[in-house]
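Hi team,

Filling in the usual template for the complex we talked about on Friday. All components are listed, including any nucleic acid strands or ligand strings, so the model treats them as one assembly.

SUBMITTER: L.P.
PURPOSE: interface mapping
COMPONENTS: two
RESIDUES: 757
SEQUENCES:
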Amino acid sequence: MQTGNLLLLLVVMIAGAYYLGHRRSFALARPLGGIRHLHSLPFYYAMRTAIWCAIPALAILGAWLAFDDTLIRVMVMDSLPAASFPADASSANLLLNQIGNVASGAIASSEVSPAVAAAAEKLNNLRELNSMAVAVVVIVVAMLGTAWGWVKISPQMRARQQVEKVLQTLFMLSATIAILTTVGILMSVMFESIRFFGKVPATDFLFGLQWSPQTALRADQVASEGAFGAIPLFMGTLLISAIALLVAVPVGLMSAIYLAEYAPARVRSFAKPALEVLAGVPTVVYGFFAALTVAPVIRQLGESIGLNVASESALAAGLVMGVMIIPFVSSLADDVITAVPQALRDASLGLGATRSETIKKVIFPAALPGIMGGILLAASRAIGETMIVVMAAGLAANMTVNPLEAVTTVTVQIVTLLTGDQEFDSAKTLAAFALGLMLFITTLLLNVVALHIVKKYREQYD
Amino acid sequence: MDTAEKFDEKTPGSDKLAGQIEGEQAMDNTTRYPDQTIGTPFVDSPKMRMRDVDVFYGDKQAIHGVSLDIGKNEVVALIGPSGCGKSTFLRCLNRMNDTIDICQVKGNLHLEDQDLYDPKLDVVELRARVGMVFQKPNPFPKSIYDNVAYGPRIHGLANKKYDLDEIVETSLRKAGLWDEVKDRLHSPGTGLSGGQQQRLCIARTIAVSPEVVLMDEPCSALDPIATAKIEELIAELSESYTIAIVTHSMQQAARVSNRTAYFHLGRLVEMNDTETVFTKPEHDLTEAYITGRFG
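RESULT (copied from the run log):
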């Protein structure tokens, strides 16, 4: 039986278990005089039966699927005659692939040696047996679980507490998955970075002022020694992010204040979603808007006052990115400003403060944590943004703080390092992981600083 | 959203009110509302003078032609069943109703010679002259010192730190809170107990030296001991301020006020010396309310 079908069958069985548990709890309650004489509601007895059906069966299915492939391989290899036994691991893999291909019919069995053909047949037999066995075992376990759950139902049983416990565990597991994923990503980036720092000294990377990651692909190729100084990239990232935040924070905050404090309900109900649409525009659209519309305008403006502006400039990319992240600031800030209790506004207005004084002195400090959260979210979007920069700011790793020149950012370089034909253990490719690690650390530091600011200046209400 | 809540709370038509109206129809129908407020709503040379005040929330009228005076250094209590418009009326006196978009006020309201609803009037200045203490203690999430200094700072009442310190101390002393908080002026005001918070709010209000203090059920969220302290405080404050207080507690009205106004469904039914109102009410509705037949 296919695993998909087996799962489907299991779902049906779980539903059946629920139904059986439900019926039994009612049947038990009737002679007692109604379900109020049961310890828990029938729903909990039914859920408990369903859980007993589902969890053991799913656990066994999961464990089985995790190990059966390895087991079958070992058994197939063992069945090979000693003569055709592979010498080393890579030829063993090759042979296994060949057997697999024969078994699935991609290669005709007449084209290979009889030993391989026999092994392929054995593989097919084993697979069939395996899928039969797993189906039988899982179904039997599910039935046993259901029966156990069903038998144990009694008016005194504390089903509610048990179901709550299972749900609590489920929630905890979900939280763990998210955390483990983060740790996993960090680990993988870290290991590759360590390999990179084996090829390029960490000091060169951290303090180098030159970025030209051109290394020889083959030994006989003539190429310059690559330079892996990350400083120009981080300068570029910071420059563009700073421009973006300079646009987004004031505009976003002020529009949030307008929406939360001044706008009539009618305007608000229309303006807030309209603002949020900005966040939904694909970044590639922003990218060509920046490159084809904004950059030429800036160039013309600059030239009209005698400034030399590159056709791809940090300013164009930063401005457009700033517009893109306005909703992150405004939407979150609006939510927290609205959440400040009306009593605080009344108190301030009742003392004769004007609206803007009230906002500045009472509402803003009370809403600060949420506002910082919005700004932080916007900042990490700006730092991580790639598309707009590729299209509007260029690829040249210039070390400059002049917003009128072309710059490049960390994320853009990661993309260019990892696209195209690459050898996966060259310093050039590994540099991408080191950049990723640095980016991760930067955003982490940003979070820590922001948390600190919030703690220091927050004014807690209630 | 806030607007909607207030709307429900303060306009006739909520469930609670519907009940009251039914109960009332069972009463004597001929003497329902007097054509004119019974008693003595007016005084000589009043501090605040209100004539024919109508308040509307959208289409609904919450206050019907209320006229009354508040004398200088007088404590006036506004009583009546929930939803009778007493809080709404109080909020007209320093234009706090402005914060509600759909609220509309008509009539003549004067603070001495100043028309409260004069379009040229600076509402900031008005609220500095007519302060307000709210139902729930609402200290700012700032230190005790900053709470009291808030008003003086925005009105520029102190030029030097020394002056501000003095204002803060005087206000806290007047509010009877100084001895309890003088050692922790810089800890948060929200960390005080409910009664202390309300006295902090009173200190904050009198720190800008208002002429009139409006109190909207200032003790309804407090325990009896804290309530007793606030009532004591009101008696002391009446020596230097004019006070209008909305209260649900008739004993409180009897204890703290000089004159009492009885509101019923947006109308001012009777206003008289507090003693008269509670011992010899002239109107059936007033009598029914103070004897506890409804409300």
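MY TAKE: Chain A is about 75% helix and 0% strand. Chain A has a mean pLDDT of 86.

Thanks, L.
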